Amino acid sequence: MYNEFTYIFIIQGDIMQRRVLAIAAIALMVVFINGLINDLETRKFDYETNRVEEKIKIRFMSSWGGIDNKAVVLDQLIREFNEKNPDIVVINESTSGEDFLFNLKTDFASNRPPDVFGIWPGSDIQKLIELGKVADLKEVYLGDEQWQRSFSPKIKERYLSGENIYSIPFEVIYEGLFINRELFQKHRIKEPENIEELFYAINRFNQVGITPIAYNSTAEGSFIYQNIVASIGGEGIETDKKLLEDSMIKAMEIMIELYERDAFPKNFYVLDDHRRNQMFINRKAAMIVQGSWFIDSEMEKNNDIGLIPFPLKSSRKAVIHGIGNGNFHITSKAFADEKKKEASLRFLKFLTSKRSFELFSSLPGFTSSLTYEIDEGISKESIKELKEANEYVTPIDHMINRTLWENYIIERFPLMLDRKIKPEEFLDLGD
Questions:
Q1: CB neighbour class for 330 (10 Å; exposed up to 12, middle 13-18, buried from 19)
Q2: Model confidence over 242-294: pLDDT tens digits?
Q3: pLDDT at res. 5
Q4: How far apart are CA 247 and CA 100, in angstroms?
Q5: pLDDT tens across 382-418, in order?
Q6: How far apart are CA 405 and CA 53, in angstroms?
Q7: How far is CA 85 from CA 75, 80, 342, 388, in A?
Q8: Do the Cβ atoms of 224 and 252 come closer than 8 Å?
């Protein structure tokens, strides 16, 4: 017979057994639910992966990457495009500086070209066109009246009216002589309007211990030489090779005179581009020849910084003016693939759209080939003097083979300035 303690023991044992069974059931249920969740997550991952794989991937390359001031805007623009076009993903492979051209040439040489890319006019893009690597966009351009209307008349006449259209220009660049008005006013020196007044300003700045012109012997440093060539020959050098050669020789002679008048830093031959720019920005140099991309937000607001045509002659105010790296193309390889062709064209038109114009025009010094207007006008006080120019000349390094320009002319410039090489020895400009 069981006593009450026995009953209690039996009851407690039964309760414990039930608890164990309940815990086991719960554990099994947790394992089942976790397995179900993991399975759903796996399926979701596989689904999302397949969705990404189904998207048309467009590789884009330009020099608007890295430290370039247009890199952030480009990233934003591409993000917006990808969000508005869920069937396309644009992969931005832009890099800045010398890496860009090296990477672009390497990709073409290895038969892995980008689908859409930007590059300035000149021998590099011309070579790719000759090799059949770049698509002719004329039929597409002429078939879209709204797209045609977005470009300014001058751009259409000069760049979009040929027998073939391989490039869609978007970024307009210009160069000139930046002057630090604060230094000119402090030392009571007149802003130069011709070469004689420039020589006088150089002499005065040397007397007060300020480097007259920030210059170095690099391709970027050569902008001063290009501006002198443009000031001598004007627009005629674009079509007259003899005039171009004569203007280059005369410009080298002027460069020699500037050098012998101590217009440049003593260490110009070892100075890099950044330190040269900083000389002007930090008011260690009174002048510098640079381009529109050099203008930052401080310069744009600062009335002490001016930008004028190179002061060679009072009667000729020529400005280097052309298309920058925002000169867009689609490769023939992408154009041959119907899906990539359609996606590339959609992206190209977005790159040259009103939205793109609004974003990039917010950058100091940026000028576009489009005719759109922004509701809140962008003030460009820094460049108002350039409106006085009476001639606009294509950059000289767009007319000459780039390898010849950089490796033969620019590399030997210091020897020419020291009169170890005569200017006439640079005459072989190639085709």
A1: buried
A2: 999 999 999 999 999 999 999 999 999 999 999 999 999 999 999 999 998 88
A3: 41
A4: 31
A5: 455 566 678 889 999 888 888 888 888 888 899 999 9
A6: 44
A7: 15, 9, 12, 44
A8: no
Q: How many residues in the chain?
A: 431
Read off the amino acid at residue 308: I
221-236 pLDDT per residue, tens: 999 999 999 999 999 9
Q: Beta strand pairing status for 116-118 and 56-61?
A: parallel
For the residues 43-47, what does the mean pLDDT come to? 45
pTM for this model (two decimals): 0.80
CA distance between the termini of the chain: 120
Burial classification of residue 187, based on how many CB atoms lie within 10 Å of its CB (0-12 exposed, 13-18 middle, 19 or more buried): middle
Tokens matching residue 255: 């460069």
Query: Cα separation of 397 and 123, whole Å?
Result: 9
CB 287 within 8 A of CB 179: yes
Mean pLDDT to the nearest integer, 30-40: 51
Distances from the Cα of 146 to the Cαs of 80, 135, 142, 184, 270, in angstroms?
A: 21, 21, 10, 48, 50
Q: Which domains does the chain have, with CATH numbers?
A: 56-171+324-368 (3.40.190.10), 173-321+378-426 (3.40.190.10)
Q: Give residue for tokens 């590789």.
A: 59
The secondary structure of the chain, three-state, reads CCCHHHHHHHHHHHHHHHHHHHHHHHHHHHHHHHHHHHHHHHHHHHHHHHHHHHCEEEEEECCCCCCCCCHHHHHHHHHHHHHHCCCEEEEECCCCCHHHHHHHHHHHHCCCCCCEEECCCCHHHHHHHHCCCECCCHHHHHCCHHHHHCECHHHHHHHCCCCCCCCEECEEEEEEEEEEHHHHHHCCCCCCCCHHHHHHHHHHHHHCCCEEEECCCCCCCCHHHHHHHHHHHHHHHHCCHHHHHHHHHHHHHHHHHHHHCCCCCCCCCCCCHHHHHHHHHCCCEEEEEEEHHHCCHHHHHCCCEEEECCCCCCCCCEEEEEECCCEEEEEHHHHCCHHHHHHHHHHHHHHCCHHHHHHHCCCCCCEECECCCCCCCCCCHHHHHHHHCCEEECCHHHCCCHHHHHHHHHCCHHHHHCCCCCHHHHCCCCC
